[in-house]
Amino acid sequence: MTTIDATFVQGNTGPDIVAQLSDQLTKVPLNLTTAESVRFQMRKPDDRVFTVDAACAVTNAASGLVSYSWSAGDLNVEGEYDAQWEVHWNDGKIQTVAVPNRILVRRK
Fold this sequence. Notes:
By secondary structure, the chain is an all-beta fold. About 0% of the residues lie in helices and about 45% in strands. The protein has one domain: Immunoglobulin-like, CATH 2.60.40. The chain has strands spanning about 5-10, 15-20, 35-45, 50-55, 55-60, 65-70, 80-90, 95, 100-105. The strands form 2 sheets. Strands 1, 3, 4, 7, 8 and 9 form a 6-stranded mixed sheet that branches. A hairpin with a 4-residue loop joins strand 5 (about 55-60) and strand 6 (about 65-70). It is globular, with a radius of gyration of 14 Å. The two termini are about 25 Å apart.
């Protein structure tokens, strides 16, 4: 059985999804002050194309806090989705963090 980390309602545009990004090996919160950008990505487990792949807000860089404000249409299709945050560092490296990992969009 899959663990659901966050649940949202079909067709809604709120609340925002928020997370504290941590290094997956050390579990230490990422300091995002040298990040060029952070993207929120979400897709159904059996899809290859992201339903959502968009820039998100860094709300506290030193603590690794980020948020994504849903756009109209992001939550239109009910079901389970895998989610991740993609950090683009100033040195050109990309680091993917899966927090939360499984999102449920429930029927309205």
